[in-house]
Design brief:
heterodimer; A: about 170 residues; mainly alpha; 8 helices; about 0% strand; B: about 260 residues; alpha+beta; 9 strands; about 25% helix; flat
């Protein structure tokens, strides 16, 4: 089963980034391929198979971690992140925390499109397949999501500056 | 460069994507097993086994359609309450989970399939009364009524293999979906609203309208409009939602309050 061999790791990786536990992620991957197996005639061939599988995995995850529950789980994961920069300077830690806070403040839709672009490194055409939207819409939504995040980071910075200025 | 350096004027797009990438909860390499891992091998065996045993579904009842009273809205995809005490029932037009659906008020004592019977008789779903209606547990945990003899005939319902029984399945995929099915954005919006409403008792119509309006403004329900499916009265002060993909309308469906409220 080439589909399984070729894409299992990527699908599991996708699920691990979003599921609460490794066991949940493995279940999601299994369910994703179960759906694919049942709908084998619908699975695109070649590179297009992967975003198709991500789309199925996204639905499986969406059902498994609905609404606030999913947001809470992701937030927990993000809170647990440590900054990638190896430094003892607190401002770097603050900056990473600020980005995480800004990201959490985005809508689920905004977060997911940014994740697909930044984490999975998917091109717009593949993001469109995963989200089942037009490629043109991907561009618009990515633009809006980046702009929203940028605004939130500016606000975070302004708050940090005001806080520093208020110190004696 | 740190995010601090850029924040006063706002980071560039590339910087923003790098910042988002830095939030990636990169799983441990050991956790990202390949298809040759023991777990993957076991899952594959279960998948192949489950595909051969699709008859095992979760029917909650099976009965021939009867002529019973129902309060029907138009053909739509629907938000409804959990199966343990449904206020509304989703009557699917075809044996697939992304088919058009009529939302009806649940009958006291009649059961979901009985409530859908009259909708079929009236022709609201486009055809005559089917020979059989079956109640199935949807991936959301709610009950849907389909024109089929068994839940196994319903496309889009989760299977029940030992490996995946605890994980809900999908209701749509980006390709191979019937052309009449709603697009992914609409399904997502419906799922969000369903999730938000499912945990609630009586949702006032103003609140329901605001929730839908938010989805419209967010672009998920682009060019959709809100329409009241009937008058909200002291006897029917609660709102449920129905989605009419053909007319791009979200219907606010008046319902009586749930028992105990």
């Amino acid at each position: 089963m080439d589909l399984y061999t070729d894409h299992y790791r990527a699908v599991l990786h996708y699920a691990l980034r979003r599921a609460d536990t490794a066991s949940d992620a493995e279940d999601v991957a299994a369910e994703t391929f179960l759906v694919a197996w049942r709908r084998l005639e619908d699975v695109p061939v070649g590179d297009a198979a992967r975003p198709w599988l991500y789309a199925v995995g996204r639905r499986v995850l969406s059902n498994a971690y609905r609404g606030d529950g999913r947001r809470r789980l992701l937030n927990q994961r993000l809170r647990g992140r440590r900054p990638l920069t190896t430094t003892t300077e607190s401002d770097t830690v603050d900056a990473v925390d600020a980005v995480a806070r800004g990201f959490r403040a985005l809508s689920d839709q905004e977060q997911e499109i940014l994740r697909l672009a930044a984490w999975e490194q998917l091109p717009h055409a593949h993001i469109a397949v995963v989200l089942d939207i037009a490629e043109k819409t991907v561009s618009v939504r990515l633009h809006r999501a980046r702009r929203h995040l940028s605004e939130l980071l500016v606000e975070e910075e302004a708050r940090a500056d005001a806080s520093q200025g208020a110190r004696p | 460069m740190t995010p601090h350096d850029r924040a006063p004027t706002g980071p560039t797009d590339d910087d923003l994507m790098a910042l988002v990438a830095s939030l990636d909860p990169e799983p441990d390499a050991d956790a990202v097993a390949g298809a040759d891992s023991a777990r993957a091998h076991d899952d594959l065996q279960r998948i192949l086994g489950a595909a051969q045993h699709r008859a095992r579904r979760r029917p909650v009842g099976l009965l021939a359609a009867a002529s019973l009273f129902a309060v029907a809205a138009g053909a739509a995809t629907v938000t409804f309450w959990p199966d343990h005490d449904p206020m509304t029932v989703a009557c699917f037009a075809d044996a697939r989970t992304d088919a058009d659906t009529a939302v009806v008020a649940a009958r006291r004592g009649g059961g979901p399939a009985a409530a859908c019977g009259d909708v079929w008789r009236e022709g609201s779903l486009g055809r005559g009364l089917p020979d059989h209606l079956v109640e199935c547990v949807l991936p959301t945990g709610h009950v849907g009524v389909f024109p089929a003899q068994t839940c196994d005939q319903v496309h889009g319902l989760p299977g029940e293999s030992p490996a995946v029984a605890a994980t809900p399945s999908v209701t749509a995929s980006p390709s191979g979906k019937p052309a009449a099915g709603p697009p992914g954005d609409v399904i997502d919006a419906r799922d969000r609203l369903t999730g938000a409403f499912a945990e609630r008792g009586c949702v006032p119509p103003d609140e329901a309208r605001a929730a839908v309006q938010s989805e419209i403004e967010d672009g998920s329900l682009l060019e959709w409009e809100i329409e009241e499916a009937g008058p909200f009265t002291p006897g029917q002060p609660c709102a449920s939602l129905a989605f009419d993909a053909d007319r791009r309308r979200v219907l606010l469906v008046p319902l009586p309050p749930p028992p105990g409220e």
